[in-house]
Amino acid sequence: xxxxxxxxxxxxxxxxxxxxxxxxxxxxxxxxxxxxxxxxxxxxxxxxxxxxxxxxxxxxxxxxxxxxxxxxxxxxxxxxxxxxxxxxxxxxxxxxxxxxxxxxxxxxxxxxxxxxxxxxxxxxxxxxxxxxxxxxxxxxxxxxxxxxxxxxxxxxxxxxxxxxxxxxxxxxxxxxxxxxxxxxxxxxxxxxxxxxxxxxxxxxxxxxxxxxxxxxxxxxxxxxxxxxxxxxxxxxxxxxxxxxxxxxxxxxxxxxxxxxxxxxxxxxxxxxxxxxxxxxxxxxxxxxxxxxxxxxxxxxxxxxxxxxxxxxxxxxxxxxxxxxxxxxxxxxxxxxxxxxxxxxxxxxxxxxxxxxxxxxxxxxxxxxxxxxxxxxxxxxxxxxxxxxxxxxxxxxxxxxxxxxxxxxxxxxxxxxxxxxxxxxxxxxxxxxxxxxx
Length: 437
Description:
By secondary structure, the chain is an alpha+beta fold.
């Protein structure tokens, strides 16, 4: 096995405190570069949406950029960019985040901006209608008019899961989006954007004591509200195989996605880490098992990938989730032949185990990816924020490389034994456009 991986928390220790309104605050000082990152993670994602309001988490992310009580529309962006900074936000299955990276002297500006929109975003009829149109256009561009636009992240969950939280279209239906009202948006904000339902994480060139003063100056005034109950997203493990078919007239070639339920990423992290390395072993790089088998040896595919979580980050998702293997193959290759090859490669790991040398190579590659993500102040801050919200420990983000280095071949073999064709969810995409005939 590889030696124990690096523990980033030793070089970048975190500090935390909680405001009276329930806001959890994590500080990650790093005085090596004169840059700070400010991020707010709200514990509301696509899986939090109720029936009739699909796409609302993403829609509200857009609303949070439309101005707030003391910041006119577009002023947030202007103030960050004028300071030489960058900003963005994103919606995930289990959270929505907002973040900016700026020169250290602009720290208070970023704190003020996030506090102002946490307190009172500009929820107006004009803003809501405008952003519904923006989101609808985004869906047209990214999903409806793009080859493989919904495959498999929007289509596989309906086969793999049972509950509304896990199966519905997180981008949203046009019917649900268009029927949204200002009252709906105001209720969504009141329910999910409470300080007690959020984590503020600030990293970079900061003094913790001075930063706490700034945080309290601007966030203490945000009214306290109770955090909503967590959505019920856990499900019993499947006992049968499931299969579905979709057609894509824009796709140049057919594809297939296989989804296996995996251990709880939060409640059973040690077991889950074996699955993380199994996914890398199967799919990452030219030497991976599926790359060699499908593309080079049997020539059954033109592309393949395997990943945990529908958004591709194995550590920012709660249970229930999937390991997905996605394969794009020529039209003259039967999909069942592709499926058989994938299952055979998984079975080889389950039966024969993993050579120590192969696992060491895969582990080193995975560690390197984690360290690269954490190399920038912003990347490290986002990692700490996600770990605090999802796992309850920001420090975990810095410990992951070391914990992965401790995973044994037996753990990876056990993970492969859990990927049975008898409980897999299979989504077949048929390319029905003229170019694919």
